Amino acid sequence: MEVQSILSKVRRVEIKAKGLSNDIFAGQYHSAFKGRGMTFSEVREYQYGDDVRDIDWNVTARFHRPYVKVYEEERELTVMLLVDVSGSLDFGTKKQFKRDLLVELAATLAFSAIQNNDKIGVIFFSDHVEKFIPPKKGRKHILYIIRELLEYKPESRATNVSTAVQYLTNAIKKRCTAFVISDFIDDHDFYQPLVIANKKHDVVAIQIYDVRVTDLPDVGLLRIRDSETGAERYIDTSSRRVRDAHKAHWLKRQEALHNVFARCNVDAVSVRTDEDFVKSLMGLFAKRSRKV
């Protein structure tokens, strides 16, 4: 792809993602993802309602009237995006591909993080860790991440969420907030690695999916191809039994996936390619704000 075309795409994503993070997510993001604790800021005179446990007795004795210590949140976080780059993301039937939605969503989270003075890093994964971008701050770093989100060509088309989660646990030493962004079409068991990662870090799962994994259209004989393995087969979508079986399989997978997240105590949200992700993320942020 020509350099000018790449820059144009990066700019379009930047404008949309930055606008969303400025207008919608900044306050919600701040309250949903807390800093590491409280740090001393200053002392001031005691006011009615202040906690007596915050009285600074040395200053109080010096000025012969009560003073209290004032603390502020130690706000800076490290935010990691664990981004699925496997072949199954190259699918979409209405508004956009799953990969396009993933890029917009990841870019919006990145801008929200940078607005709050947080560091942001990325782990690209397929069935192995493809690329690691260490967490940093700044617009230049964000634009580099967006360019990689748009242009990165994975070595493998398969998926293994465990490899990315295990890498996160080992590579990031201090506690961070980690967003795993994937369609979670993965037959590997990632429960145990996710439990371990979420004990060390604050892990959030964002599932991206397309309406056609939930409901098949009645369009007769259809040739389908697995984008990760390349296997092809025909299915008769005019058969109600086939369509019902397809939906039942999806619902069973979703139930199993949500059970894993619940058992790991991982907050999760599902976003569909033909719907605006704003409402879904706002719901996730509001839910977390009530918990913290």
Automatic annotation (TrEMBL):
Pfam families: DUF58. Signal peptide: none annotated. Coiled coil: none annotated. Residues 42-253 form the DUF58 domain. InterPro entries: DUF58 (IPR002881), vWFA_dom_sf (IPR036465). It comes from the Bacteria. PANTHER family: BLL2464 PROTEIN. This is DUF58 domain-containing protein.
